[in-house]
Amino acid sequence: MGRIANIVPGLKPAILMVLVQVIFAGINVMSKLAANDGMNLRIMVAYRFMFATVVMMPLALFLERKSLRKISWMVLFQAFLCGLFGGSLGQGLYLQSLVYTSATFVSAMVNLSPAVTFILGICFKLEKLAIGTLAGKAKVLGTLIGIGGAMIFIFYKGIDITIWSTNVNLLHHRQPGGSPGHSSNDTGKFILGAFLGLLSCISFVLWLIIQAKMIVKFPYHYSTTALMCIMGSIQGAVFALCTEKDSSQWKLGWNVRLLAVAYLGIMGSALMVFMVSWGVHLRGPLYASIFNPLGLVFVAIVGSLLLDEKLHLGSVIGAVLIVMGLYVVLWGKGKELKKMNQLVPSSDTNSPENGDIEIIVTSSDDHNTSVNNNYTSEDSPMEKDMN
C-alpha cells in the first residue's frame, strides 16, 4: 500500500494532461457544432471568455486574495496581451480555421507549437540555433519534419482511409447561414483555413511566452487565468460588437449554442487553462507538450465517429510526420535542458522535487527565472488544494 501511495501522487500530472486532451477534443466538437448552427465565431469567442470569467473570478478572489495587492500596470499589460494572443485573437483564428478545415487538421497544427516556438525564439534571440550540437541538430530536424508534415497534410489528399463507420453525422443538418466545413471540398478555403491555423499556432506560442514572463512576477495561477479571461472577454465583446450588427446573434436559447459556449468557457478557457498552467508548474512546459499528440488521436476518433470526417492517406502521413517532428524537437530540447541543468546545480540535490524545478529554471530564455522558487504555499493555497 505504501508503494501505491507513493506512485499515485506521481501520476497526478500525467492524469491531468490526459484530461486536458480529452477536454481539448470536446472543444473541437462543440465549436464545430455551434459554427455549423450558424453562430457568429466572434460572438462565440466573447461568450466563451465571459463564461470563463464568471468561473475564475470567484476562485481567484477567494483563494488568492493576496494577489490583488500585487497587480501592477505591467501585470495588467501582460494580462491584456495574454487575453489577446491566447484569447480573442488566437481563439478567433483557431475557430475560423476549424470551420474552413476540420477538427483533425487544426489539432494537428497545434502540434507544430514547439517548432514554431523554436523559430520565434531564434527570431527574438531567445533561442540559440547551436547547429553544431546534437540538441541543436535535433531541434532543426524536428522543425523541418513538422513543417513538411503540415505541408503534406494541406496539399496532399490521397486515398480515403475508413477505419470504422457509424452513420452518425452531427453536422448533417446544417442551417442556412452556417459555416461550411472541410466537406465542401473547397480547396481555396481549406488553404486559407490552414494559413489561419498556422497564425493561431503562432498566437498560441506568443501567449505561452508572455504567460511565462507574467507568472514569474505574478505567481498566482487562479488570478492570472482570471485576468486573462477578463481581458479576453472585453476584447472579444468589443471586436464582436464592431463586426456583427445583427443583435439576434447574441441571443442564447436552450440549444447547442448555449451548450457550446458554456463548455468552451467553463471547461476550455477556465478549467483547461488552469490545468495546463498547473501541469507546467509541476513538470515544466516540455512535459505538458509531450501529451499534445494524444489530443490529435482523440480528435481524430471523435471527428470520425460524430462529425463524419474522412481520413485520407495524406492527412495520416502528415499527422504522423508532425508528431514525429514534435518529439524530435522535444528530445533535442530535453537534451539541452539536461545539459544546462548539470551546469546549474540545485541548492538541495537530495530533494526529488528540485529536479523538476531545475528543468523549469534552466529554460532557453535567459530572462526566465524559476516559477516554482517564487511560488510558495504562502502565496496561494493551490498547492494545498492539489496535493
Q: Structural class, from secondary structure content?
A: mainly alpha
Number of strands: 2
Tally of alpha and pi helices:
15
DSSP strand content: under 5%
Q: Strand arrangement, largest sheet?
A: 1-2
The major pleated sheet works out as:
2 strands, antiparallel
Computed CA radius of gyration, to the nearest angstrom: 21 Å
Low-confidence stretches: 173-184, 346-387
**Would you tell me the overall average pLDDT?**
76
**Straight-line distance between termini:** 18 Å
Choose one word for the global shape. Answer: globular
SSE pattern, N- to C-terminal: HHHHHHEHHHHHEHHHH
Helix content: over 70%
Question: What's this entry about, in short?
Answer:
Helix content is about 70%, strand content about 0%. The chain has about 375 residues and is mainly α. It is globular, with a radius of gyration of 21 Å.
